[in-house]
């Protein structure tokens, strides 16, 4: 079976405006690409009352028919779900909301924990009753059981969980943004006047009209209340391991990482890709959308003409996000149409951001061959995927990765292409500024050893 990879969710938090839920929904709309299974918002009003609305579906569907008007409050958190743990059912749609000894707490999570068996055993032995099948609920239980202050409770939780987590948490009077000590998943802070905003990507800040302040640092807890913003560092420290696949594929091109746009990183990937894997061709054809900036970089370096021969339908979601295999395949077929006259009789180099399991790539190559392309070459703006990800991207079975089962001529034959070339690990790091990244899906060097490997 071959599908696109999938990421776990987008999160938003807003503090300090009467229309917090409506602003949160705008942010979730900008982050729709991070999860299309379900969406939810929890709001808190001046009297400490919580309102909660969530459902299966897209943001525009979940919050139709006046749902936002019922989410009154000056603080809210929101979540777009793609499941990496737990079934695609409404019970698992976040934010999660509980009532405990410290009052009501809501939490939304982007990422994936890797010590869930140990956590489940510990919590179950202590009498915990689980309402969902997600790893996110374990963090809520740990916070609720702590007898310390909120910051102490979150710090204790961080010392017990392992893996990837960016969180937004709200109590009746505080909004908190948390990022794991390695910073696997993104989380940033913005402001609109006196209103503070957390979001998974800066593209959400742009749509909300917020000014970017900075990223939440790895291992940082940022507390926002009527007294303003304060920061605390977790006692748990580790080397930064930002997920490089966020830049290759997941983040929107108008989002920013460090001091550059995601588009600029992908453009540089394309330039480096041509230097490492040149190709004689008549036309460059990108696979939209995340492959497009790399294709422009490849075209800039090669001087080969670029044609947007694949036309994307914006009425279909990202095919990898659909939870059932049949739904994914149907979406692959509906997602892109080909303008055949642009490739007929030509040598085509198709630029894609990744070839993970191979199904969509095979489908695209067939489109090109059927349209009369005389040669089809593939150039990929990242290294071959050969290892599972345990930190929130769903390609967990090595046997499903086409670069594991096929190499060289075997891979070309499986994909029905004349040649294939990948960007090297060194080239990818150079294109991304040489920062500290997790590249375990390419090289198997896991920053944290998962339970299944111990």
Question: Would you kindly provide a brief summary of this structure?
Answer:
This protein is of the alpha+beta class and 454 residues long. The protein has 15 helices and 23 strands.
What does this structure look like?
This protein is an alpha+beta fold. The model is unreliable at 318-322 (pLDDT under 50). Strand 5 (96-100) and strand 6 (103-113) form a beta hairpin. The two termini are 27 Å apart. It has helices spanning 20-30, 59-62, 116-125, 136-145, 150-160, 202-208, 244-250, 262-276, 292-302, 325-335, 359-370, 402-405, 408-415, 425-431, 440-443, and strands spanning 10-15, 38-44, 50-56, 75-81, 96-100, 103-113, 163-170, 175-179, 188-192, 195-199, 211-215, 220-225, 228-233, 242-243, 256-257, 260-261, 283-286, 310-312, 336-338, 347-352, 375-380, 419-422, 437-438. It has two domains: 10-240, Aminohydrolase, N-terminal nucleophile (Ntn) domain (Glutamine Phosphoribosylpyrophosphate, subunit 1, domain 1), CATH 3.60.20.10; 258-434, 3-Layer(aba) Sandwich (Rossmann fold). It is globular and about 70 Å long. The longest helix is centred in the middle third of the chain and has 15 residues, at 262-276. Helix content is 29%, strand content 26%. The chain contains 15 helices and 23 strands.
